[in-house]
Design goal:
By secondary structure, the protein is mainly alpha-helical. It is built from seven helices and no strands.
C-alpha cells in the first residue's frame, strides 16, 4: 500500500529503528566495582552464618542435646532466608552471578557443620536417655533387693542397654565391657546398701555374698565398712535396749520388807 501525500507536508520517511539495548558495560572499572560489592555482600552473609552457628550463647554450637537438635531444625530455614535477603541486595545480574557461588560455598560449609553438630547432639540425647534408664533400673533394684529373680532381670536389662549404647557409639569392646561391669556393680551394690538401710543385715549379707563377684572392689570396700558400722550400731542398740529393760525391771520390782518392821504374829 502506497503512502498518502498530504499537500503542504513533506513526504513521511521510513519508521525509526527502536533504541538498541543498553550494552553490558564490561569495562574493567565497572567489573571491579561489581566484584567488590558482591564480596562485601558475601562478607555480610558469612558473618550472619557464623553468628547463627557459633554465637557464644545463642549459636547452634552453644546448645547441647535436645536443645541443639531444635536449634539445628530452626537453622535451615534461617539460612535460606539469609541467602534470599543477601541476594536481593545484589545490583544487576553480574553482581548476582558473582555472589551466588560464594553463598553456595558458605552454605555447603554450614551444612557440614550442622551435620557434625547434629551427630554430636544425637549422641548426647542418647547418652542422657541411657543414663536415665540405668538410674531407673538401679532405683528398681534398691526397692526390690529382696527379689532375686527380679534383680537378675534388672541386671540383664542393664547389660543390654550398655552394650547397645557401646555399639551405637562404636566403642572398643573392652571399654564396653568395663562399662557393663560398672553398671552391674552399681546396681547390685545399691541393692545391698538399700537392704542395710532397712536394718535387714541378714538379708543384706545374703545378697552381698551372692552378688560379690560382680561388685567392683572399691564398692566392696565401701560395703564392708557399711556392714561394720551397721553391726556396731545394731550391737549398741541391742545393748542399750537390754540395759534399759534391766533398769526398768529393777524399778518395778517391790522393795524387800525389813524384819524389824514386821509385827509379831
Amino acid at each position: 500500500m502506497g503512502s498518502i501525500r498530504i499537500p503542504g507536508l513533506p513526504e513521511a520517511g521510513p519508521a525509526a529503528e527502536p533504541w538498541p539495548p543498553l550494552p553490558d558495560n564490561d569495562d574493567e572499572h565497572t567489573v571491579r566495582l561489581d566484584e567488590m560489592f558482591a564480596r562485601r555482600l558475601d562478607t555480610g552473609f558469612s558473618s550472619g552464618v557464623r553468628a547463627l552457628l557459633h554465637a557464644p550463647e545463642t549459636g547452634v554450637a552453644a546448645q547441647s542435646g535436645e536443645a541443639a537438635l531444635e536449634a539445628i531444625a530452626g537453622a535451615l530455614p534461617a539460612l535460606d532466608e539469609l541467602k534470599e535477603r543477601t541476594l536481593a541486595q545484589a545490583v544487576g545480574p553480574r553482581q548476582r552471578r558473582i555472589l551466588e557461588p560464594l553463598i553456595e560455598t558458605r552454605l555447603d560449609w554450614a551444612a557440614g557443620t550442622l551435620g557434625r553438630l547434629a551427630a554430636r547432639a544425637t549422641v548426647e540425647v542418647d547418652d542422657a536417655s541411657i543414663a536415665d534408664r540405668i538410674a531407673g533400673l538401679q532405683q528398681d533394684a534398691s526397692s526390690s533387693w529382696h527379689d532375686p529373680a527380679y534383680l537378675r532381670q534388672l541386671g540383664r536389662t542393664t547389660v543390654e542397654e550398655l552394650r547397645h549404647q557401646g555399639e551405637r557409639r562404636g566403642r572398643d569392646p573392652a571399654e564396653t565391657d568395663a562399662r557393663v561391669r560398672g553398671g552391674l556393680s552399681d546396681l547390685y551394690a545399691g541393692a545391698v546398701e538399700a537392704a542395710i538401710d532397712q536394718d535387714d543385715l541378714a538379708g543384706a549379707s545374703g545378697l552381698y555374698d551372692h552378688a560379690r563377684p560382680v561388685i567392683a572392689p572399691e564398692r566392696q570396700a565401701t560395703l564392708d565398712r557399711r556392714f561394720v558400722q551397721a553391726r556396731e550400731a545394731a550391737l549398741y542398740a541391742t545393748s542399750t535396749a537390754t540395759w534399759r529393760a534391766s533398769r526398768s525391771s529393777r524399778r518395778d520390782r517391790p522393795a524387800p520388807r525389813s524384819s524389824r518392821n514386821v509385827p509379831p504374829g
